[in-house]
């Protein structure tokens, strides 16, 4: 009966107690628990990192396998080299490491070919890994892989690499492997070969020491940045101080911009060694081009030229980007450490901006309250001038009153949520426009936001600096608000020039009445259009609006229009609307018919019916004037 490899190995594996010594035949052996090996493995991973620990365990396993193969070569009288090679699987079981059995076995010792695959059952290494860590993203039986490669390579005389395909340590049901010679693996194993290169453990520890030293340096710099910037924030220092402190800690230029890409602060210490020159305008142009169409929401590195690196972090307040903080250097790209430093600085800059914004909003509310009081016209002019002067504002200078009325969501329940969101974003964009203009032209817009209306004082001095008229300015605001389709109508009313503090109440009414006229026209013409209306273009309508006895005007208008309006209500006709178009088109029958999409005969019938009901001759100039006055009075008093 032929003796099996296992029998041979078991026979030579015996214990002889000579004061605590154990022998594998005459070779002294040491037995250790798997838990102890698990702790050692954990310490290696925690100290070296899992990649370096992997290389260490692979090489250790390789040498163990190689040495045991040499030892067994001399201890056992093998019938063939193949028998010696197969004994390696038994050594796994005898050593308590794993139960190994091949599934595919294609080996030729003479030709030096090796193509084997199989399974490892109950791997001690996978179990120990899971006792200390969670599932890993790749196989983790590093010692077993190394041992298999070292043992078979010694037997075959050619380098054999084991590759674990499935592993319990990454969540698979069992561990499995594939083993081939380097030649048979080809390019498939290129990334693994480096793990088998010899490297002294002292070198590994030196690498770890340098890494710890670097991490200590990074921690020191990060702590210094946080401490210095927080201290500056608490002391009420500004962005210039922030930029200087960060630049000194990092020894590189620091640039801080607002959301409009204007520089708030920047610092560059030319006296420091190894600090490169930088082109501030080039950096500004780069950032503006990068983020004018999309918003940066995370810290990102950019290469703005050959070996010219820029790291940009957004300054975010309540999910909105309020600016950017950047650092620049030439040479090596930025890493995780610089990203961490910059994000810390961006967070503190955000707190600073939030504090300033809160103070500005408080001041804006106080100005708005004063403006509302001014529009009511019930306050002593000298008193209101003095109170505005506390904010450094001269309310007595020439200004226009511009009122914007936004749609009421409750009046438009059909709006989808994203459409309403677009409308809100558009109004925010307009406010951002005012903020940019204030910065660029060194002016101030006093705003009153109430209900669905925003009223803004537009200084004539600002318009002169900008070399633009109030009509062009209002039209630009209108275009900003109309960028998104699908929003309900938005109205802008513009007053005449206000040159005295006592005129604000009247000018405020003009701007709002201009909006009411625009809305009345929309109702009369059965359309829903946004529009800009200037009080100085309304002519005699404004005289009607300012009449001291409006009841007399209404009585006058009723003489012409009341019966016509009543008839429309009872019969669902459009005679009032037809009359408006007819008068606006200078009593041109054909033009009115085209505009209202009505036949000529149908239009003649309507005109005849109108003349019968209101008992006037529309061919007479006096009749046309009286009817025009009546229509405009109805519109002015919101009766159409």
UniProtKB/TrEMBL annotation:
InterPro entries: CdaR-like_regulators (IPR051448), CdaR_GGDEF (IPR041522), GAF-like_dom_sf (IPR029016), NO_sig/Golgi_transp_ligand-bd (IPR024096), PucR_C-HTH_dom (IPR025736), PucR_C-HTH_sf (IPR042070), V4R (IPR004096), XylR_N (IPR010523). Transmembrane segments: none annotated. It holds the Pfam family XylR_N. Belongs to the CdaR family. The lineage of its organism: Bacteria, Bacillati, Bacillota, Bacilli, Bacillales. This is Sugar diacid utilization regulator. PANTHER family: CARBOHYDRATE DIACID REGULATOR, DNA-BINDING TRANSCRIPTIONAL ACTIVATOR ADER. Residues 119-181 form the 4-vinyl reductase 4VR domain.
